[in-house]
Specification:
Radius of gyration: 19 Å
Helix content: 55-70%
Structural class: mainly alpha
Strand content: under 5%
Length: about 350
Amino acid sequence: MTRPDPLDEALDLLAPYGTEWLSGLSNHGPMAAEALLRMGRPDAVVPWTEQYVGRLEPLPLPAEPVEDDAWSARLGSPDAFAAYYARASAELRDAAWHEVARSWIPRLVPGIWGAAAHGGLRTAHAVRSLAVHESAKRTDELARALAYWASVYEELPGQPVLKGSRSLDDAMAEVVTLDLPTRGGWLITETVAGIVDVPDFPSVVESLGPTTVSEITRAFAGVYLANADHAAIALVHSVTAPNTLRILLDFAPPEARDAAIGAAWRASAALLLAFGTNPAEPDQKPVEASRDELIDRAVESRDEHAIKLTAACLEEDGIEPDPRYLAAAADVSARLRD
């Protein structure tokens, strides 16, 4: 007897639900379920999803697909989710999923900040799952993820061109000297919205020279550690967003890679300005826990942010090891427990 696919089971549980809950918080269900499977915990996927779905809002009613001439015009319109979902679903019926991803992702990457980066994050988890195993449910999840990203698309100030002269450390140090005049708001995006009133933010974004995904995730793992006492959940996203950009870059043309990395930098810099007070990590003891122990702690926490940050940090540490990754993974599961 063939064992059911745990991610497909989780996506089936999530199928009746939309992209958010409590009118603004993103549905983390598909992302955390994929992260659990990615970390080698298939037995945890369905139980975690079963306890999560009760907080979600229903899937919006169907709509006519977005037309070609309205595709760009409706970007960033939350009420357009159903229309983008219909469009993505239709395209995925007629073409291979990776072809659809290559069509949509380069157009969406400049707006990776949308919904505190959750549109891009959800898309990255979806394409990573399809790269491992193709199924109807995983393909449908890609349609939902792309539609969500399109409907929450949002660009922040500044051109993320990576043609400046500053190092990442210097640019981050400059970010924390800026003054965000209005802080607060229930949602992360409400606080970050005040950046439009920070005249020097664009120039600081544009001052960064060439950098890499690893440099950004490593630095912002340190930002998380330095500021977790007052902004843990917000700053989780400053690491997970550039981490999942690794996946999205596979679907962007080479000439767009720097701009994509720059867009992730711009999003993480916005989070640093809005929620961080220090870009440098504090002194810390080496983490003695093993990889499996860190995963176990994330599973036991049952918190979606702890699960996703742990998965991201372990992946990044496997690419270019740095003690900040393991320290952040250990901290988040102890700090955020459902």
